Amino acid sequence: MKLLSKNLGWVVFFAALALFPLVVTNPFYTSIGVYALLFMASATSWNMFSGYSGYIALGSAVFFGVGAYTEALLALHWHVPANGNLFWLVPLGGIIATAFAVPIGWISLRVRRHTFVVITIAVFFIFQLSAINFSFTGGSSGLALPYITWSAADFNNPFYYAGLILVVFITLVSAFVRRSRFGLQLLAIRDDEDRAMGLGVQVTAIKITGFTMSAFAIGCAGAIYALFQGQIYPQFVFDPTFDVSVALMVFLGGIGTLAGPLLGALVLESAQQYLTATYSSDSLYLLLFGGLFLIVIMFMPQGVVPFVRDKLTKRTDLERAAVAANDVSSPSPVAPSTPTEVTA
């Protein structure tokens, strides 16, 4: 009961997400929900490494694309029926993405932060060009997945709940990592890598492990995206704006926090999908997002979640101080004196 009351906010949040497609049945909004959940999972997974370690990765679209192509290639070559069986391939997309992350991390994490960013960008473009030019990926024509023919009225719901399961999973993993010894070592690397090394932290091994772990959920998100779209193209699954978007979502919500990536992805991706579909233009949401980020940078440089948390903590401390001051200033009741007996 104590654990439930402590995490009541999280329970309410995920319960609201679970009830959303049952209450809002319009396919337009449930499709926005699918995209939002995929980015919530990707942002949380990205933050689990980059937010905790301080190494900003701008090549995570590699794992998204690998997961998408794994889903498509396995579905086609294994002749998986166009039904719910396709969802069993989603974890394989995450596993293959994780396998690719091992050598990528081993190469890119041998350097420090700024060079690491450049290497991840270079690796991304290698994968994108490979997907465009290799024949087994379909080249620039992409790949078409088996066409799913279940009920049109509830078409989005299976994808929505698959995304929700992924979000719950990676949120629990991220919370566990943050509270574990491994997570403390990542945070120590973020604060001072040389000092962490001097204290005995196996810096390279910890960084590679964290980088590899973050690839799994992003690969699964790519696999679900491929199923939802029905057809994938290299320029869309290996999209450089994916990395920028995920990083901005995390920075907006609060990098290094648990709730920040979820909030940032939920707000930004939902707004982007809605504005793009409604006004058929990318210019409007880019203009609004630019103004939003200027406000956040000026007034909430640590992100929305840390800003609100600090304000609430400060307010609580002031209230406690005021109560303590009142207790000190108010006179304490004096016990009535008993008359003393005077003897003659």
What report would you give on this structure?
There is one protein chain. By secondary structure, the protein is mostly helical. Helices cover 74% and strands 1% of the residues. The chain contains 15 helices and 2 strands. The protein has helices at 2-6, 8-23, 27-53, 61-77, 90-108, 113-133, 157-179, 181-191, 193-198, 203-229, 234-237, 240-253, 259-279, 283-299, 304-329; strands spanning 143-144, 231-232. Strands 1-2 form a two-stranded antiparallel ribbon. Helix 3 crosses helix 8. The radius of gyration is 25 Å and the shape is globular. Mean pLDDT is 89; it is low at 340-344.
Nutshell version of this structure?
The protein is mainly α and about 350 residues long.
